[in-house]
Amino acid sequence: PQEDLSVAVAQSEGFKLYPVKATVHFKDGSAKSFTAFSSFELLRGNGQAMYLKLTGHFNGVAMTQKLMGTGLVFSTPMGSTATNYSNDGPTIPMGGPPQMILSDIGIKNPAGFNQIVSGPDDYYEVECAENPVKRPLVISVDGQEIAQDKINNPA
């Protein structure tokens, strides 16, 4: 068994990972950066839907979208096979070009919001479009939830 593992490792091929990098800006002017190898998620922090304003550049085209729902997921190829696929979204092959998928969790408005497969030159900005005390957001990086008190007062 140990020899079989050594042979399998010796015969394996490597591939490059392209993580999702996100910087969260807070109302107090501070910021905190995160790196996710699987996914970066913005989720509602209580039972109420979250309201977000999504702006960015996708395939060279500026976009602005107001969203209402449960969450947004930014997935790498590694995360697309779990998180995104479970949301009926596409998957990205490992070892391919640098890509990311933006998909939704229960986005009700606008109806028909589609997943977006992004390239390395695309970027997004997400803004809380309503009072964050009334509709708080939770951040999850590779499945690890960042506590709301840390979001509001980053270390």
What key phrases describe this protein's structure?
single chain, 155 residues, alpha+beta, six-stranded antiparallel beta sheet, three-stranded antiparallel beta sheet
In terms of per-residue confidence, which ranges show pLDDT below 50 for 5 or more consecutive residues? none
Estimate the strand proportion. 35-45%
Residues in helix, % = 10-25%
Q: What are the secondary-structure elements, in order, as H or E?
A: HEEEEEEHEEEEEH
Structural class: alpha+beta
Figure out the total of helices: 3
Overall residue-averaged pLDDT value: 84
- Order the strands across the largest sheet as they lie in space: 8-7-6-3-10-11
Number of strands: 11
- What's the end-to-end separation, in Å? 46 Å
Principal-axis shape:
elongated
Radius of gyration over C-alpha positions, nearest whole angstrom:
17 Å
Largest sheet: 6 strands, antiparallel
